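lol so apparently i was supposed to do this last week
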Amino acid sequence: MTKQAAIIGGGVIGGGWAARFLLSGWDVRVFDPDPEAKRKIGEVLANARRSLPGLFETALPEEGSLSFHDTLEEAVSGAIWVQESVPERLDLKQKVYTSLMEHCAQSAVIGSSTSGFKPSELQEGTARPEQIVVAHPFNPVYLLPLAELVTTEKNTPDVIAKAKEILSAIGMHPLHVKKEIDAHIADRFLEAVWREALWLVKDGIATTEEIDDAIRYGFGIRWAQMGLFETYRVAGGEAGMKHFMAQFGPALQWPWTKLMDVPEFTDELVDLIAGQSDAQSGHHSIRELERIRDNNLVAMMRALKTQDWGAGALLNAQDKHLGANAPEIDETRPIVTVRRAIPLDWTDYNGHMNEARYLQAFCDATDRLMEIIGCDAEYISTGGSYFTAETHIRHLDEVHAGARIEVRTQVLLGEGKKMQLWHEMYEGERLLATGEHMLIHVDLETRRPSIPGPSIKANLTRIATAHANLSKPAGIGASVGVRA
Ligand SMILES: NC(=O)c1ccc[n+]([C@@H]2O[C@H](COP(=O)([O-])OP(=O)(O)OC[C@H]3O[C@@H](n4cnc5c(N)ncnc54)[C@H](O)[C@@H]3O)[C@@H](O)[C@H]2O)c1
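anyway here it is w/ nicotinamide-adenine-dinucleotide bound
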């Protein structure tokens, strides 16, 4: 099978499809009358190249070739998948299908990115309606895996199977919507939420920012990992979905929304939902689901921390607040540079903290020590910093999620460009690991070693001198090898 796709309409969405196919190893041929199409797709592709490949632990296949064509006929030549992403106008889309039928292979699947038209509307009046399906993606198409695959009875099982196979092959999740409806599944939610939001702003209840905060600090993150029904099943507690529905069913009649066209709250409806929810999630107890939810939330919120965005920015602010209560530093003893709990996402298949996280904790300890000597964000912005040149970690004992650990840091050397640190990690008084690290001060412009600024030099010398009076920790200078 020659993996060749044609992209008809290379705007926001067509560009995203082009990038996804290309990075999945497909050759991509584009037709778009916009003279700017090449530049725009190039820019989308650049963003896709920086973000998509790193999602996987395995290298993606060699990128396919990208070409631009002056006619639709040329673009579809040899394509086994044709993705139509022209503007959302039914007459325009139907006109495009008429030309497609003249030029593309009869065996090709034609997917439409339409946000809301039903496939039967797209198929109407075309020579080979069985070729056309809705393949509705989400922006950015190169990252988000969902493609709503909406079909009609005109599509043969063969076409549907091929569509599923190809969408899966490029890393998407084809959600087969078997009964067509305006705006498919996902856009109906988005539309309902959008309409409520417009009312809330118009009525002066909330600003755009307050509405976004209401989503991203709460139910938005919950939805991202379990969706709607599994989340509500957990919210029902041990009694599950039926209980949840009994509790909130009456609210369907209350003015909790502007959308007051609601289904009748009958036993049949409760049984239908509870039955489907059992089939979906019944193999987990509610307690298990709670733990799965919590693991997911921790992993997602901690990921947002690294971006200092949304709920992650709140956590960072809270970190600063907690840090303000840090104990006073006693320079005559090893300095406490980390005091924290082991997060859920630091453990691995062995059920304990992964070895890489020992390094992370020691890295955080080094960062804190740097801050203490004055090598903080402000100093670094003036062009100086420390780079680690060598590290030796001894993993002495295991530790589990939730354990409270402390890292105590001793300065072994602080002279010229060099800073040698000795970290000891403890849970209570149980020694878990030691880390010995040699760091070199560098000029961030030349990226070469340099002498630190005078106040850093003075602070480091003072602490190193005080720490020289401490007993030498066992294990300094140890190398990897068979123990005697
Ligand atoms: N933007 C979104 O978030 C989003 C999400 C999912 C689906 N969609 C759907 O994707 C489709 C495209 O939306 P978009 O946001 O990429 O629009 P867009 O305006 O960014 O891109 C449309 C592109 O189609 C080109 N075009 C116009 N007529 C053409 C023709 N006859 N042949 C070939 N190309 C032609 C335009 O030059 C333009 O580059 C719509 O059906 C839309 O509903 C959009």
